[in-house]
Design brief:
It is a single chain. The chain is α+β, with helices and mostly antiparallel strands. Helix content is 50%, strand content 15%. It has 8 helices and 6 strands; from the N terminus they run αααααβββββαβαα. The chain has a 6-stranded antiparallel β-sheet with strand order 5-1-2-3-4-6, with helices on one face.
Length: 271
C-alpha cells in the first residue's frame, strides 16, 4: 500500500514539474531573448532549449537589448530552480516506489532538466554586438553611418571600431567650422579624432583581416591624435582617415563614385 502511495506521489510531482515547464514562462522568455539579439550562438541555444519541451519560438527580430537578455535569463533560471527542487523531492521517493510506473516519466523529466540546465548556463554570455544588418561587429572593423550634409545630400560618415572598458566605441574624424574659398567647392577646417559609443546604425563595411593585428590599427589611431590634421572635403575627409587607419592607405570611395557620376553625366550631355 505504501509503495502504491509513493508511486502516486512521484507521478503527481512529475506532473507538477511538466505543468510548470510548459506553463508558457520558458517559451515567453526564450522568445524575448531571440527577439532582442543578433547573436547566432544565443539563438541556437534558445532553439535547442525549446526543442527539449517541444515548443516553437517566434524568431522575428525586434531590436537589440542586452538588458532584456539579462532579465529573461534571470526569469528562466528562477523558473528552472523551482522545477529542480521538485525533482529533488522525486529522487528521495524513488527507492520506495514501483519503478514500473515511474521509470519512463522520471527519465524523460531528468533529461529535460539536465539539458535545460546546460543551455541556460550557456545563455549566460555577453551577446555578440551586431549592426542593423545582423553583421557581427569586431574591433578594428571599418564602419559607416548614413548622414546628410548641409545641402541635404546623403553621404556615409566613416569610422573604426575600437575597444574600451565600456565596450565597443567608434573612432572617427570630423571637422568643426569649415572654410569655403570663393568660387571653389573645396572645404577645409581643423580636424578632430573623436570616440563615441557604438550603436547598430554604424554598419560594417569591412572586417579587419585576420592577418592584420588590431594593435597596428590602434597605433595608427593613437598617432593620428597627436597630429595637426586638416580636414578637407576632397583631399582628406572622414573616409580618407578611416581607411588610412584601417589599411594604411587614405582613400575615399565616395569621391570616386561621385567623379564617375559626373563623368557619366557629362557623357550623357554630350550625346
Amino acid at each position: 500500500m505504501f509503495k502504491n502511495s509513493c508511486t502516486a506521489k512521484i507521478l503527481y510531482l512529475l506532473g507538477e514539474i511538466q505543468n510548470h515547464l510548459h506553463d508558457g514562462t520558458i517559451k515567453h522568455e526564450l522568445n524575448q531573448i531571440v527577439r532582442h539579439t543578433r547573436d547566432t550562438e544565443i539563438i541556437d541555444i534558445c532553439e535547442r532549449s525549446s526543442e527539449c519541451l517541444g515548443i516553437k519560438l517566434d524568431m522575428n527580430f525586434y531590436k537589440l537589448s542586452r538588458e532584456q537578455h539579462i532579465r529573461s535569463l534571470k526569469h528562466l533560471e528562477k523558473h528552472l530552480k523551482w522545477a529542480k527542487e521538485k525533482f529533488d523531492e522525486v529522487i528521495k521517493l524513488i527507492p520506495e516506489c514501483d519503478s514500473k510506473w515511474t521509470e519512463s516519466p522520471f527519465r524523460e523529466t531528468e533529461i529535460q532538466l539536465l539539458f535545460l540546465s546546460k543551455y541556460f548556463i550557456l545563455l549566460d554570455k555577453v551577446p555578440d554586438t551586431a549592426d542593423i544588418n545582423a553583421e557581427v561587429v569586431k574591433i578594428g572593423d571599418l564602419v559607416a553611418i548614413s548622414c546628410k550634409d548641409d545641402e541635404d545630400q546623403n553621404y556615409d560618415h566613416y569610422g573604426i571600431i575600437v575597444a574600451s572598458s565600456q565596450g565597443f566605441r567608434v573612432a572617427h574624424f570630423f571637422t568643426g567650422a569649415t572654410v569655403k574659398p570663393q568660387n571653389s567647392i573645396v572645404e577645409k577646417g581643423f580636424g578632430y579624432v573623436h570616440e563615441l559609443n557604438y550603436h547598430p546604425e554604424w554598419v560594417v563595411k569591412q572586417h579587419l583581416p585576420q592577418t592584420v593585428p588590431y594593435s597596428l590599427v590602434e597605433e595608427r589611431i593613437k598617432e593620428s591624435k597627436t597630429l595637426n590634421l586638416v580636414w578637407n572635403k576632397l583631399r582628406y575627409n572622414c573616409e580618407h582617415w578611416a581607411r588610412e587607419m584601417f589599411n594604411g592607405e587614405p582613400e575615399c570611395t565616395q569621391l570616386e563614385m561621385l567623379k564617375e557620376e559626373i563623368r557619366n553625366r557629362r557623357k550623357s550631355n554630350n550625346l
